[in-house]
Predict the 3D structure of the following.
Amino acid sequence: MLGDSRGSVEVAPESAPSPGYAASDAQRWVAEPGKKSYRTPFERDRARVLHSSALRRLGAKTQVVSPGTDDFVRTRLTHSLEVAQVGREIGRALGCDPDVVDTACLAHDLGHPPFGHNGESALNELADGIGGFEGNAQTLRLLTRLEPKVLDAQGNSVGLNLSRASLDAASKYPWLAQDAPIIHGHRTGKFGVYADDAPVFDWLRQGAPEGRSCIEAQVMDLADDISYSVHDVEDAIVAGHVRLDMLDDAETRERVIGYTRQWYLPHTEAAEVAEALARLEASQVWVRGSDGSRAWMAALKNMTSQLIGRFCQSALDMTRAIYGPDPLTRYAADVVVPQETIVEIAVMKGLATTFVMTTENRQPIYQRQAEILHELVQALEQTGERHLEPMFAADWRAAADDAGRLRAAIDQVASLTDGSALSLHHELTR
């Protein structure tokens, strides 16, 4: 387990951090003396994530539709690249260091396991007795422990050893599971750190307000929401799952409104959701038909671009109206998104949910994916370190108890792509 004796680190002699950032923001969990460079610490952070094996694996992990089923659909990797582009521009417009935001956006899905959110739910069930599984907590674990790059003086991996500002920007839910906030009377199941990763989390959160994410993390979160809300609909349209003129049917329209509320806005009235849908339909860029022509595809891409711009600009305008024109970094401000925009983004998510994620023909696929991950983890538990990759086998041997060994097996499974999970499952269960 990572110790907590490395809190007093020195800033490596890289270029100075950007204006608005203190020297402590550029500190690393383990000092790296002699790293002279023309790059800033934050530029180096971005490069480390960009060249990581974890980022490459996202190319074969499910976003919404499984990779390989269609040449057009997005994977976790292409989604992350798009989030980084959107987040970098929002962050730059607000005065954040673009590389800090870019790093957080590239890293935001690194902890997601095979089979998308369905896989995340399956691993959370398997890890129920050892603190659960959460994609965001797994991202922090990967950045600070699992991805090989830097070792401490005792030979323990500290992951990519990113700067404090970049790690904090990647922390979408800056709390442990037991400290998760209560929202509308219920404790959220989202959290950003496992208990045995608490030392590095405490270090990166030094000086941060409890439970509050920095503005760079908020930009990352908004860019993620905007990107997948629009792009998932684009993918669904191109794949033939939906045409937007299907919303002319009253029953279909009610389903979209219902799923939007059920999945994303349970405390929002149906009339408010319906008004947001009507506003989107009234925009000049809304593409109703589908004929597969170049002109139609160009119109669809224009709709995607214009909706992203619409959502980004509304958040920028509102945030600037409240905080003024000065550069906004770390804890100097929050990203403020107008309620109308929040609902419009949710409606776009609701469209993808209605026509892709909740269709009856997807349910047997989701069930089988969950079964595969359950059987895979159980097989690894039964065979010990024999079928674990060397790095995870070492974690297995170093574990103090069964809980630690189970976590090593789950770390291994979470790192797999969709295809490698299927292959390993076949190997272990044939």
